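During the no-cost extension, the postdoctoral fellow (Dr. R.K.) reprocessed legacy sequence entries with the updated structure-token encoder. One reprocessed record is reproduced below for audit purposes.
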Amino acid sequence: MAEHPKFHQIVQEGWSTVVSGTVMFQVWQKLKIIKQGLKTLHKKDFARLENRIENIRKELGEVQSQLVASPCDISLQVTERECTANLKKFLGIHQGALKQKSRIQWLKAEIKGEIKAFYHGLIGSVADSLEGIDVTVVRQGNHLSASSAQSLVLPVTNAEIDMALKGIHINKKFFYTTKLLKQVNNTAVTLIPKSVIGEVVNNSQAGFIPGRNVADNILLASELVKCYSRKYICPRCMIKLDLKKAYDSLEWPFLKAMMHESGFPDVFVRWVMECLGTVSYSILVNGFPTSPILGKKGLRQGDPMSPYLFALGMDYGVSVKVFG
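Re-encoded structure tokens follow.
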């Protein structure tokens, strides 16, 4: 459209229109006038291009047929040149429109590919090598009591299934086979009772733990900072850590090892790892999902099980600081 002879005229006339109001309002109003002019031009000269091209071809064919019978007719010759010029014009416009559409489609595909590649590298890949956890440090920390561990693997009743998985088409078979069908693993299953997680997570961790308030740590940090201004105290500092992609970066082998060393029953660990290991993700790009990406690490946002697993993983860092 930018090559149309009236394009620059429409833009110039719209931009020259006198508009009162603030500068921003003037710019917006002028752009609105230009938009309306270009829409009118598009409707007049560019709409239904394929139909126009087909009609011009028919007209040109008829004129050329008449020229065969009357080759010396000047008016037919002029009409033929006009039809040929119009056909070239609209074919060029049509070709330009197709190029623009193809470029847009290519950009969409490229952007979609980049986004999918980013998330595939984030949640669809695993570390080449992982440093093993310090078992001595973990064993010096909190552990699950025998009674709590036993409560995690008690026989599952129909009432519990109805309460925890209402509306989800799944049965008790998972709790005995530790196998979960991938097609149904698109919802969350809370397997760690709130009353148990507090036994294995250090008291300094307040987030997500029932009976603890994260605001307590904020108040404690404020009081510590106030003490820093006192005279005659030894040099000290406070470090604030920001975990980049914390949920997405948690490696499953590490989490599995932490659960085993914290005293969780083996069958319960297999339940949790089956829920994690069968997950897949689709990224919405402009409202359309990409092909599924099989998860290889990380925790799902919004899953009621994720905060407790994350707290368990973070507890290793606390244990290393206390006992390491």
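Residues 74-123 form the longest helix (50 residues). The longest strand covers residues 280-281. The remaining legacy entries will be reprocessed before the final report is submitted.
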